């Protein structure tokens, strides 16, 4: 596999042209620079004087990146809660922890920063102020300003974004702290014992701080006052005066327009992928508040689309909520019954599928983050990277899942006008925070690809604008990034470029290879190769210099001395895309690692491999899924430490929970807190021995142990005094029993995942491997198609996914066709919309690819009326009243992109052929 990293720096030495706000700058005037990588769940950032960036990590890390030196310094580790424990006592990873940070506007004078975190003991979130002196966070200066009571039995949503306005008022986003209903809909459960599933008790409650954006004025003594102009005046019965806006599900990163004072933020919506009896499908939102107000949740979403009343005790539905008269009648409401009006609709909103209103946002997973509004007056005149006037007043927004940044243009009233893709050739996936720095560059903090663990691809990126000479854009790749020694890697600079004509063909290339083991090598040329013979972690830096003497670099990290483990799931020849209703599914997981051995020879034990099997609802929250899987992963890694203890002579002196010659491991864990200093101290004792702490008996030395193995043993010992996830990993092979949970609609699927973290090699870091099988329902919703031509999606008065014109098509990527014998299309063909009917070709790999099946032509569908009869579900009624052309498939297996081409040569290009309701894959 080739790993590619594109970087570039800029220069502003040449005279800049006039800044014309009507001229869009060339894309190549912006340079994406990676400042740091490999953080442990970064959450939010704030800027400090002297080109320093303060970053907080979910598990409590507070770090400062010094751009002058490139050094990252751990300032403090804040004790935080990171676990949920439900009523049954099951423990899993929580979305909460250290969630937000911001520096005071007068930081240069008072050195104050504000942290928002989950209290390590009490069920509450805390806003606290600390003094930061250089790289020292003074614990004795801590002042708790605000406490938000919470529940930590069930996932999810914390918020935690902060921003100051020009009057020194602090805005804080607070999530709803409510269960995600498996329906992917609104949370309206008023049954006794289900309070955590009722969002009427938080976002819809005027007397609760959750599901809100708060506005307070921090005072010098560590308290706060209420500024004028919040939603409820101080003293209003059954309200909290801190509330600025309410009716939010999970508001993330807020920003303020310094010219208008308008507040902007991203908001994560529910997971339903289609409209249904409970109301609208899920939408994420980018929102604007021109002042205080009620933004609708849990009664309304998107452009105030109402949910239907739902009595979960009887599982009956009523009328939709009235946007002109919103009331909170829940038994869990402690606030006002009558909610504020008018209900503010979303500024921008989009579902999983293509948005009719905002089609540029595409279709995919979604998680609206937010972003800043650009105002040139926010920066000093000598700021080097300030964006051009073309972006004046535009709101730059980013989505965590989709990887784009959009520039949103508003009119003179602040109303939405248009949007365009910013840097369309770049991807900003997993962006969890984004803001302009004092130097005028746009900074993007990226969390990384996997939830609840440190990711090597987490990073802080800055985007610099340059109107003068452009430094080279450097691309670097390697065909091998890790391996047992010796191994040879081939480096390539393919993709490196310079946009200035006078530099074409005249760039100089220099490769530097270095490691803490003493290696220092320099190679020349556009491409290079190197043989790694000594174990270590190596930094490979390519420096490219142009004819003006301006240089730019790109880096790779290589690991010599440890091969990446290979993990595979043998699914016994079954289809790896669809679940066809089997009662059992056979599987076998195998792991092989050059240093550790394999599962087949017993060197890698079953409990060291994390294997999970989960039901995935049709609308699901990936964070909840990751919570269970992350627990299995962490326990598998801890089991490696336990097995190292079992294989050593340690048990001759120590027992797990009783005193022997030496103290029990539990007593050690209780005596020492789990800090980096204590870990290092105990590692040293294990390797070098020691005495005098627990009694007269000396502890034997174990010089044969590597520091890495000793550290794994210490981490297991510390886990004995910690709350660990209550998860059970599956065995390496067996029979899965797919079971659809009670109250589920059966439209979801199943996920089988195997994950292994190897033991490293000596002191060389561990590497991971994984494999998974994601089984979805064999009925596919056309709205989830990734490939389209001639599609018209109407959402009122009901959902209709129309195919328009001859040769229109939809397609799905990476569908396993193993065992699939036929495909049934459920089509709506009605004279009311003039549908002409069609036959359908099934092709693979492209719209012009091999035909593997074809249906008969259908021109009409049954008409069963507008509503299902008593006792018939809406889904079954729709299927009964669809035309069902069927394509018998020629023999085919493996994964393919699959296309459905609708054909009717007699139809005009604008005429509807049919509406697709569903597509069923059958064995």
UniProtKB/TrEMBL annotation:
- Please tell me where heme c binds in this chain: 650, 654, 699
Please name the source species. Answer: Algoriphagus halophilus
Q: Which residues form a coiled coil?
A: none
Q: What is this protein called?
A: Cytochrome c
Residues forming the PKD domain are 472-555
Bias kind Polar residues: ranges: 175-187
- The segment annotated Disordered runs over 175-208
Positions of the Cytochrome c domain: 636-721
PTM comment text: Binds 1 heme c group covalently per subunit.
State whether keyword Heme applies.
yes
Q: Where is the composition biased (Basic and acidic residues)?
A: 188-201
List the molecular function annotations (GO) for this entry: carbohydrate binding; electron transfer activity; heme binding; iron ion binding
Record bears the keyword Phosphoprotein: no
Listed InterPro entries? 6-blade_b-propeller_TolB-like (IPR011042), CBM6 (IPR005084), Cyt_c-like_dom (IPR009056), Cyt_c-like_dom_sf (IPR036909), Cyt_c_ID (IPR002324), Glc/Sorbosone_DH (IPR012938), Ig-like_fold (IPR013783), PKD/Chitinase_dom (IPR022409)
Q: What is the lineage of its organism?
A: Bacteria, Pseudomonadati, Bacteroidota, Cytophagia, Cytophagales
For this UniProt record, the keywords arranged alphabetically read as follows:
Electron transport, Heme, Iron, Metal-binding, Transport
């Amino acid at each position: 596999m080739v790993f590619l990293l594109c970087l570039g720096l800029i220069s502003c030495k040449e005279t800049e042209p006039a800044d014309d706000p009507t001229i869009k700058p060339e894309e190549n005037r912006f340079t994406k620079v990676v400042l740091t990588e490999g953080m442990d769940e970064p959450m939010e950032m704030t800027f400090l004087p002297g080109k320093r960036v303060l970053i907080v990590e979910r598990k409590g890390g507070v770090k400062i990146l010094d751009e002058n030196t490139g050094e990252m310094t751990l300032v403090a580790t804040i004790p935080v809660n990171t676990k949920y424990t439900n009523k049954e006592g099951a423990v899993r990873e929580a979305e909460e922890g250290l969630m937000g940070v911001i520096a005071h506007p007068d930081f240069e004078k008072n050195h104050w920063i504000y942290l928002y975190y989950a209290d390590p003991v009490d069920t509450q979130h805390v806003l606290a102020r600390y003094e930061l002196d250089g790289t020292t966070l003074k614990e004795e200066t801590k002042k708790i300003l605000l406490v938000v009571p919470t529940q930590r039995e069930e996932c999810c949503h914390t918020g935690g974004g902060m921003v100051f306005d020009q009057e020194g008022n602090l805005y804080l986003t607070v999530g709803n702290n409510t269960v995600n209903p498996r329906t992917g809909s609104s949370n309206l459960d008023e049954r006794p014992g289900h309070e955590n599933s009722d969002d009427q008790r938080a976002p819809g409650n005027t007397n609760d701080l959750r599901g809100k954006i708060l506005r307070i004025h921090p005072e010098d003594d560590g308290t706060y006052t209420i500024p004028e102009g919040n939603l409820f005046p101080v003293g209003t019965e059954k309200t909290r005066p801190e509330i600025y806006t309410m009716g939010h599900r999970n508001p993330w990163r807020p920003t303020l327009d310094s010219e208008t004072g308008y507040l902007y933020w991203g908001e994560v919506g529910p997971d339903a992928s289609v409209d249904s009896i409970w109301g609208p499908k899920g939408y994420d939102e980018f929102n604007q508040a021109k002042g205080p107000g009620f933004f609708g949740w849990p009664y309304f979403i998107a452009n105030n689309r109402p949910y239907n009343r739902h009595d979960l005790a009887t599982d009956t539905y009523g009328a939709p909520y009235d946007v002109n008269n919103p009331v909170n009648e829940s038994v869990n409401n402690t606030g006002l019954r009558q909610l504020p009006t008018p209900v503010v609709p979303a500024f921008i909103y989009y579902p999983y599928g293509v948005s009719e209103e905002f089609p540029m946002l595409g279709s995919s997973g979604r998680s609206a983050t937010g972003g800043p509004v650009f105002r040139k007056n926010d920066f000093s005149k000598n700021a080097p990277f300030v964006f051009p006037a073309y972006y004046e007043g535009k709101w730059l927004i980013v989505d965590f899942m989709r990887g784009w940044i959009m520039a949103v243009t508003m009119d003179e009233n602040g109303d939405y006008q248009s949007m365009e893709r910013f840097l369309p050739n770049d991807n900003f996936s997993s962006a969890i925070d984004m803001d302009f720095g004092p130097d005028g560059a746009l900074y993007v903090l990226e969390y990384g690809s996997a939830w609840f663990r440190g990711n090597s691809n987490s990073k802080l990126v800055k985007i610099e604008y340059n109107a003068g000479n452009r430094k080279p854009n450097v691309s670097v790749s390697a065909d091998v990034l890790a391996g047992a020694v010796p191994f040879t890697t081939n480096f390539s600079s393919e993709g490196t470029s310079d946009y200035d004509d006078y530099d074409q063909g005249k760039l100089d290339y220099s490769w530097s290879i270095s490691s803490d083991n003493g290696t220092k090598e320099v190679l020349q040329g556009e491409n290079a190769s190197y043989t790694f013979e000594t174990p270590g972690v190596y930094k490979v830096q390519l420096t490219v210099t142009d004819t003006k003497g301006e240089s730019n670099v790109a880096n790779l990290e290589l690991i010599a001395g440890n091969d990446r483990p290979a993990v595979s799931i043998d699914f016994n020849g079954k289809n790896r895309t669809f679940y066809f209703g089997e009662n059992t599914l056979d599987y076998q997981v195998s792991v092989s690692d050059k240093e550790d051995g394999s599962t087949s020879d017993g060197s890698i034990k079953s409990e060291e491999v994390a294997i999970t099997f989960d039901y995935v609802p049709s609308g699901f929250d990936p964070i909840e899924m990751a919570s269970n899987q992350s627990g299995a992963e962490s326990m598998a890694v801890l089991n490696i430490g336990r097995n190292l203890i079992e294989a050593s002579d340690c048990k001759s002196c120590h027992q797990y929970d009783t005193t022997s010659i030496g103290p029990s491991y539990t007593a050690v864990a209780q005596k020492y807190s789990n800090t980096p200093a204590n870990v290092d101290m105990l590692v040293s004792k294990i390797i070098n021995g020691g005495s005098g702490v627990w009694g007269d008996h000396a502890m034997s030395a174990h010089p044969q142990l590597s520091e890495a193995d000793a550290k794994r043993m210490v981490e297991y010992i510390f886990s004995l005094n910690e709350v660990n996830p209550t998860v059970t990993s599956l065995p390496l092979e067996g029979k899965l029993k797919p079971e659809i949970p009670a109250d589920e609609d059966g439209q979801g699927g199943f996920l089988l995942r195997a994950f292994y973290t190897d033991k490293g090699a000596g002191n060389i870091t561990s590497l991971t491997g994984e494999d998974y099988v994601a089984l979805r329902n064999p009925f596919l919703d056309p709205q989830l198609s990734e490939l389209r031509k001639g599609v018209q999606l109407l959402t009122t008065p009901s959902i209709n996914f129309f195919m328009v014109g001859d040769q229109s098509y939809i397609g799905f990527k990476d569908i396993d066709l193993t065992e699939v014998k036929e495909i049934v299309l459920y089509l709506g063909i009605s004279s009311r919309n003039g549908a002409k009917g069609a036959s359908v070709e099934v092709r693979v790999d492209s719209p012009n690819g091999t035909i593997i099946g074809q249906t008969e032509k259908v021109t009409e569908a049954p008409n069963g009326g507008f509503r299902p009869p008593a006792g018939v579900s809406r889904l079954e009624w729709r299927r009964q009243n669809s035309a069902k052309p069927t394509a018998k498939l020629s023999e085919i297996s493996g994964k393919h992109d699959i296309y459905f081409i609708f054909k009717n040569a007699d139809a005009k290009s604008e005429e509807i052929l049919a509406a697709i309701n569903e597509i069923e894959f059958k064995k």
